[in-house]
Specification:
Chain lengths: 112, 133
Amino acid sequence: MTIVSGTFEIVVATVVVTGRLDALEARSLRTSLQDHIADGKNRIAVDLSEVTFVDSAGLAALVKGMKDARQGGGDLRLVTPASPDANRVFQLTRFDKVFTFGETIEAVLGTW
Amino acid sequence: MNAPATVELAATYLALRDIGPWLEGLLAPLGSKRLAELKGSIELAVHELAANSVAHAYADDCKLVLTGSLEQDRLVVCLEDGGDEFSPDPTAVADPDHPQVGGYGLLIIDALASSVDYERDGDTNRWTVAFDI
């Protein structure tokens, strides 16, 4: 018998968003997520804890990132917004059941 | 019923950030507690409506005109713009296996408003959205 031990390090890219994630800012987030995925980082944690408002364009940027990450074998997971106003769009569109959420960035990183 | 309040916005995503403060003024007679309860959801719906107008306002000088009327048990917001006639895209549904990237604006508005009406009047799009308060 031969036993070979080793370690495998998982790289998770983190993106912190603050303020309003609306149609004005969604393109910047989409570009940031695409850059990580193009760089081979298909596991991405997006911290939305300090986001105050999310609209459908912001949601679309996150969904696009999640789809691209999953196609690469990874995932895009979210830190839950503290603001109920920022959470609303996920609940209304049922994406609260599609994304994996955690209460803190450490909790999200711990899901991998 | 309070007198209608009107605000004119440039057809840009930056200008849509004036919707929240405008709504705060409109809902102020309800008191700070009720304002805090209502403002977020109403802002999201009106923002989605206006963002749709911005996306289809092809002329640089296109304006959006918002008029709000606070009635006894509802808020009525009318949005007028001179953009292209509204043509609905299929409304998306969140599906874990096949999530769509867009198409959630109308779904959000429908979920938050008690009624949503659209009419094309000459070269003007007119949306009338009511919210129970």
